[in-house]
Write a structure and sequence with these properties.
The protein has eleven helices and 18 strands. It is α/β, with parallel strands linked by helices. The relative contact order is 0.14. The chain binds pyridoxal-5'-phosphate (PLP).
Amino acid sequence: MRPLVATVDLAAICHNYALAKRCAPGRRAFAVVKADAYGHGAAAVVAALRDVADGFAVCSVEEARVVREQAPEARLLLLEGCFDAEDYAAAMEMGLDISVQGAEQARRLLDCAPTRPLNVWLKLDSGMHRLGFEPAELQHWAEVLRAAPQVAEVNLMSHLACADEHMHQLTDRQLESCLGMQEFVFDQRSFANSAAVLTLAPAHTDWLRPGIMLYGASPFAERSAAELGLRPVMTLTAEVIALHDVPVGDSVGYGATWVAQRPSRIGTVSCGYADGYPRHAPSGTCVVVRGQRVPLAGRVSMDMLAVDLTDLPDAAIGDSVELWGAQMPVDEVAQASGTIGYELLTKVTQRVPRKYLS
Ligand SMILES: Cc1ncc(COP(=O)(O)O)c(C=O)c1O
């Protein structure tokens, strides 16, 4: 069997969820498990969290079905709402909480047979300009939906664009806009993603929506997950499958971009971009072999990558290689590759088996 596995520490996810709750005592939290729980496997993650999480949040009805199988009673929020009449029927059948992000979605809801009234989360466009109503339009729809037989709770939600950046002006403006909606009585309010859960108490309203922090990665460029008290969840582990002595002046890999400056020992590792390791990780990005960081040498291939093991003379074929995990934070690999931990975690491909530790 090809030696590559993503090991998922479910106890670490529970630890991270508990940490999110401790940041905002008395608040409830939707564990955000969209995109297959950020690549970790939604069924297993929901099963691990179902006795502790107040609810879950997903992106689509299809994702909601996976969660419902594991947590039949949990509150389950559809973050982008329903896309068509079938989605509304499914939402009513599953008893979902739904976001309503625009007039078109609200009208479609009113066209549905009210088989089961839904908890609605009206989305305020507080400044991100991605989804949501303007304040006056939101008030109008809140009143209309309050009277509709398809609707149970009328709630307010909004999403922060820059909560991961210290004291960003837009965050102040967004919060002002959210808190400006106070005069209309909403049943529940929800504004906080992971960054806001961790650092922005004014955004801690009734329900939090932590995502990335549950998976032990940091939402901040400047603060590591370890500093925040988060435990890493996924360890991506491959093996050294070949060793080559490369003389000075010879190159390694596609494009011959890495050239040996000294007699070098190169290890070939069983993980490539078709597994989700970023092709843009430059030479020098580290992996961990025998507890020691060693640098990538040359371009990442589809199924393999190469590392410079010259400073690790005992390294051997069969040695385990941590691409990311406790010793090599996914956020560091992401930063080296010009992206964020979110992208790397959600892009670990289906061909990488997930192994769960409880
Ligand atoms: C509407 C909404 N809420 C919450 C989250 C969770 O955000 P984070 O993973 O930064 O905690 C997301 C993620 O993209 C989102 O789109």
